[in-house]
Specification:
395 residues, alpha+beta, Cytochrome p450, 5-stranded mixed sheet
């Protein structure tokens, strides 16, 4: 009997891992309700992320959005683009994410982590998302862009509203908030760009402005690029941090191992990304007819790639449902995509996670849930709105 999956159904939205386990065993290429296919195996998802037979479903994504600034964002964000526009945008921003620049952010990230932890230490409990997992990446991306952190609340709310609007289950009300968020961010960052062009520095906005002067990007494209980086630069990292800490709480033996050896933080981040990724699924579209695992896929077919299923594929990862901070191939996770669409800021996000979990392991003696967390309810992005924790701090 053929299994058909409805990605908007509660079983997919709230508890998809048992379904992914079954599909990996029985039917790794699965038809979707309403058309399209779902790919679950690691080798198939990795192939789709790197193959020229597959492209971004730009028009499908744009047409789902209401007319206005949120639809403009859909047309002008690098994440949804295909070459040659994707190539042009990526070449413009990649110098800001060079190894040298990323490494230079280490001290700033360490200082920010220490400041946030010092504040958390004044209380025996608190919301980890509000107190640490959200402000750390917001502060880092603001530093990278050269944006004052005084506007952190506006940036956080606007990007969160836009992220909710990107979900395939977004409601009309969420689309309204996403449009308002897109407009607020566009207006604010347009003003910042106008001011910045008179005093260019070493920040990412200045780099983008220099690309405008070289006729590589238009003014509107600069602003949309900044918004894309703002959203991608902190939302997924917030959920990496939150999902990772929750995994440690639910696996105290792993937390004990990390406390005993904080150097495990580097590989631990890879295992957190594999075990409970911030991004569960991505969408692609067949650029031409092809066949995968005996299933024909016609040009134009919508393809859903399950990052979460691929990261738990027993063909690639031994005992995939076990959290193992020493897993030797944990970095084979596909949580930052791959190939030409590999997340531009993946090294920075990884660095933030590594520093954060090292600092937390060095300064916490125990951590547990104070009450049940409040999860996100989307299909694509997985994490928590709140993560109430009780802490025991080292002297």
């Amino acid at each position: 009997m053929t299994i058909t999956v409805d990605p908007t159904a509660p079983a997919f939205r709230y508890d998809a891992l048992p379904l992914f386990d079954r599909l990996l065993r029985e039917q790794p290429v699965t038809p979707l309700v309403g058309g399209g296919v779902l790919l679950c195996r690691h080798q198939d998802v990795a192939w789709a992320l790197t193959s020229h037979d597959v492209r971004r479903p730009t028009e499908w994504s744009v047409n789902r959005k209401p007319e206005g600034p949120f639809r403009d964002f859909g047309r002008n964000n690098m994440i949804s683009m295909n070459p040659p526009d994707h190539t042009r945008f990526r070449q413009a921003i990649m110098p800001a994410f060079s190894r040298k620049r990323t490494d230079a952010m280490t001290r700033f990230i360490e200082t920010t982590c220490d400041r946030l932890i010092d504040d958390m230490r004044t209380r025996s409990s608190g919301d980890f998302i509000r107190d640490f997992a959200m402000p750390l990446p917001v502060t880092v991306i603001c530093e990278l862009l050269g944006i004052p952190t005084e506007e952190e609340d506006m940036l956080r709310i606007g990007s969160a509203d836009m992220l909710a609007g990107l979900e395939i289950v977004a409601s009309p009300e969420e689309f309204v908030r996403a449009s308002a968020g897109a407009r607020a961010l566009f207006d604010y960052l347009s003003g910042v760009v106008r001011e910045r062009e008179h005093r260019l520095g070493d920040d990412l906005l200045s780099l983008l402005i220099r690309n405008e002067r070289d006729h590589r990007l238009s003014r509107d494209e600069i602003v949309w690029a900044a918004i894309t980086l703002l959203i991608a630069g902190h939302e997924t990292t917030t959920h990496l941090l939150g999902n990772g800490l929750l995994a440690l709480v639910r696996h105290p033996e792993a937390f004990a191992a990390l406390r005993a050896n904080p150097d495990l933080a580097t590989n631990a981040v890879e295992e957190f990304l594999r075990y409970d990724p911030p991004l569960y699924v991505l969408f692609r579209q067949a650029a031409r007819d092809f066949e995968i695992d005996g299933t024909g896929v016609a040009e134009g077919t919508l393809i859903m790639l399950s990052i979460a299923a691929a990261n738990r594929d027993p063909r690639h990862f031994d005992e995939p449902d076990r959290l193992d901070l020493t897993r030797t191939n944990a970095r084979d996770n596909l949580s930052f995509a791959a190939g030409r669409h590999l997340c531009a800021g993946h090294a920075l996000a990884r660095l933030e996670g590594q520093v954060a979990f090292r600092r937390l392991a060095e300064r916490l003696t125990d951590v547990r849930l104070a009450e049940e967390p409040s999860p996100r309810e989307g299909v694509m992005f997985k994490g928590y709105h709140t993560l109430p924790m009780a802490y025991c701090w080292a002297d």
